[in-house]
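Hi team, as promised in this morning's meeting, here are the two structures we talked about. I've kept the exact order from the run log so nobody has to guess. The first one is mostly here for context; it's the second one we should focus on when we meet again. Sequence first, then the predicted structure tokens.
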Amino acid sequence: MSEGRHEAPVKRDGALADETPSPDSFSVVIGATVPTGFEYTAADEVREKLGAESRISKDRGRIYFEVRADSLPQVHQLKSVDNLFVVVKEFPDYHFKDTKEETLEEFEELASKLPWLLPLEVWKLNNTLKKRRSRRKGVLRAACPGEISSDGRKGGAKPEPQRDPESADSVIESNTASERGAASGTGKGSSAAAKEESQHGDVDSEEETGDSCESQDEGKKSELLKFRVTCSRAGEKHNFTSNEAARDFGGAVQDFFLWKPDMTKFDIEVLLNIHNEEVVVGISLTEESLHRRNITHFGPTTLRSTLAYGMLRLCDPLPSDVIIDPMCGSGAIPLEGSIEWPHSFFISGDNNTLATNRTVNNINYIHKKRQNKGSSHWGLRIDTLQWDICRLPIRTGSVDTIVTDMPFGKRMGSRKKNWDLYPSCLKEMGRICRPETGKAVLLTQDKKCFAKAVSRMGHLWRRSHTVWVNVGGLHAAVYLLKRTALAFEKAEARANLKTKSTEEDEEERRGPEVSDAAPGDT
């Protein structure tokens, strides 16, 4: 997809040539990582919001689409993508050499042959957008006025930043700078510079004395871009490792641009994505995943906002719909829904006090964020309660859609408890959901238990669609269920009658009980 675009020359020192096109005069290919299983959902969003057609990558969890460079702000507003990168060059059917040495040598030669100019122009444009966002972000780091502490009291101290438990990478082999050390900075003519940096630290910033020539050299060095190369590889037929590919390709990139390798405080991250015979070289446009956009208070099972968005798109919310998340955790689903579908009404709840407090704090964060932007409509159409999932304080047949992340039985609950919990949940969900038009979108990794529960509740629910997803390395599924047309009371009466009839048939098959007495004993 990257072939055929006009490329102006790139200077050896990494600076762009003077004749650079304006952002509205050229197009680039953008790559996006998305929740595995929701590639087509992300493609639909790109078509809807950007008017661009997407191509689903052979490597699950990635899509590619072509847009004009001035559409970059709209690209960053996509809700179904985790990370973004601009494609430098794509090789759909790369022919690797027979030996490891030949393959790595070809990677080294590749760096100087790639069309870098337009992707670097997009990277520069992206930096201006990041500066604007970082200026706005400073105000939001203070605690929200109505923040609730872990003990349930308002005005508690702001907790320490919590690590998102769902941010683990997929099970493909991936090497970042922390794993490689200075691997991507090694190569022809670069090992000495990397060694000197590791021994002496950032010498350029510490030496402030010297003659005029030295100070000029220092100024020149400080202008050099710092970079790293990240290689992710999937496939068993490669005769090299991700570490080796990143090391040799990174060394060639340094030799070509004269950039300075830095594994932590880098300005630019070059991506080398290898999936079987597919090779894609790109430049990262996101420093952290976009799925963190709404959540500041993480719990042990916080759902990614991007995955929550994909689940909500499955149920296609309509204006005035009442949508419930009965096991809200940190509130990712109702928050995403109330922001993207503001004309629907969302109710979130959980049986855990800490979970409801986290949800309220995340809602307050969005309120504060909107108020700082000067929005006159900063409130969200969302309520939060603490309740028992099996006894919801909601009228029968009053809810349009249920969207929730059910306990997997790993971090929360247990597989044994799920055998009782799942049928009870589906029964209560069937009670509050509108007959015939009601829907439920449910995420779980305990697929065997869920299938059995749906089978038992067949009088209330029928399975419509299943999306297989990867959640933190776990193979899970998102189920779209449709409510049957029977009213809850009639459905339950019919189910009880069927159960009773089944028990009677079973007794008939067993026949009359045989006496244990001997034939002659009377």
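And here is the second protein, the one for discussion:
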Amino acid sequence: QVETLKAKVLEQAQEITRLRSELGGTDAEKHRDLLAAENERLRQEMKACEGELRELQRQQQAPCRDCPHLQEKAGLQEQLSQLQREAEETRAKLVELDLEVQQKTNRLAEVELRLKDSLAERAEEEERLSRRLRDSQETIASLKSQPQQIKYIIKTVEVESAKAKQALCETQSRNQYLQEQVGMQKQVLKEMEQQLQKSQKTEAQLRAQIMMYEAELERAHGQMLEEMQAMEEEKNHAIEEAFSRAQVEMKAVHENLAGVRTNLLTLQPALRTLTHDYNSLKRQVRDFPLLLQETLRSARAEISQAIEEVHSTNRELLRKYRRELQLRKKCHNELVRLKGNIRVFGRVRPITKEDGEGPEAANAVTFDADDDAVLYLLHKGKQVSFELDKVFPPQASQEEVFQEVQALVTSCIDGYNVCIFAYGQTGAGKTYTMEGTAANPGINQRALQLLFSEVRGKAADWDYAITVSAAEIYNEALRDLLGKEPQEKLEIKLCPDGSGQLYVPGLTEFRVQSVEDINKVFEFGHIKRVTECTNLNEHSSRSHALLIVTVRGLDRSTGLRTTGKLNLVDLAGSERVGRSGAEGSRLREAQHINKSLSALGDVIYALRSRQGHVPFRNSKLTYLLQDSLSGDSKTLMMVQVSPAEKNTSETLCSLKFAERVRSVELGPVSRKAELGSWPSQEHLEVLKTLLGDSPGSAAHPGRGHASPSPGQLSSRSASIRRKLQTSG
């Protein structure tokens, strides 16, 4: 065990010294020499330690024969052998790296030698070419000087005798010879110039090779640096791992062999030295990450501060934008009120199980997060935007919808005519919005509850009478839903008082005084309304339902009388016969529904284009809504749409129609008020006797009922009418 511990300590010293020598060295040879010297020193220390340990083993051989830690000693010896093998592997790797460095050094020397040879050859070639060039230039200069003398002689000898002429011929022949020599020298000069060009090309090639060698040298140098860095990282990692293993194993040895610690006191200074060296190296390695982390922290702080400033600016801009949006909406609503525009609200129903599954049931309608008056429809891969006065998403409740329309409802008490009608394809949720369910009522019942609440609030100064009528337009026939004979067809006529208002002679009215009365009237009217099952809607309304609420008031102090009318219309849904699967009577009903809705579209077009003639009489529906669409009523259209992908065509048509309706200007609305006397008490008693005070027990209407049979209809109607008569 002492040998194992000493071997581990020596290995740690060897690794740390090797790392220190590598970090301090500048080239591979110095590194190798330092490693060799360190290895020799470590071998000598190991031999000395082995001698001391053998001496200790001889001293402790007798008491250790029966020692219970023999097995543990064998295990530690195995660990020592394993560590020795790892050390051998590390040495082998070091030898391989040394060989690779030596090879690259030899290669670099060879490249430098070749470069020097190339430069020397180039210098010799340039020197030789320069000498030849100088010789050629001297020869050319000498030849050029000789012909000038000959010409001069020729000029001077032309006037001499025949003897001189003979000498001239000889001179000319010599001149010709010299010219041939000059031509030959020129040819030689040309060849030398060509050789000079070749030499220049060779020089360029040599320079390219030099640049290539330099690039290769730089690349080899970079590879060497990378490999040395990788070696350094591997050595650091090996040192850390070896040190951690040594610490764990030393701790185990100290716990199990307390008696041996006294024999290892001489080794503790060496261990402290190694630990100190390791800690100093570790601190040196940590300096750079700490500096980098500090820089990153400061940069992150600056970036976070900038992001926070941008976020605060964005929040302030968003707040101002929303405030301006609300102000714009308020001004727009006031402008709509002054112009008398038809206000248009949109409501999107949620996806239901009736829509099915798959791509056809995907949601095709999205909303603007900042503007609650805009919605987007994805139709055939294109997004179409629509702007209404208000848009309600699928999660909007009945209470939220009614909060937007209650201002119109309360103006009915002040003597204004108000009309609220729901428009949309079949199954889009029109009846749910207008009537709702017993647990979650719609606009109709909430409007009457609000009227009663307002009437009770003004009971100290005003007397009010609220009457309710219900009718439906089925197959272009107007029927009374509260009358004794619901199949009787009624007609729409002008009031005989010359006011130009329309009324329905024979239409039954019930006076209501409480919510219970409302529920009874709604049930009485709902059991007579026609609903049937189609492929698009299980409980499809097959008629247009109209709830007429008349509020008459008398100011007891001034005698001022007001009359306000609230028309709540649930239109039958438009449908495509091919999709709904209507046949027989259902087909005839669908044709009449589509015809009346088409007539409504014609009326809206005529009002929007300000035509002189508006075709109100083309349909019973438009004729009955003439008062609400001719400029003497506050009108609101609630367009209901389906978000399902398969219904995008119908949704597109409904939203386009809503935008056209929104652009219609009806003009300012007048209040129905006049000074006069209130009807006598006898008149009221007669009215109560004829109409009844309490219409009976109630169940809120909804689309959850199918059309009753004729026998059931007559029996239930008679029962409810008896209750109405007895409850008064």
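Starting points for discussion:
The chain has a mean pLDDT of 76.
The chain has 16 helices and 18 strands.
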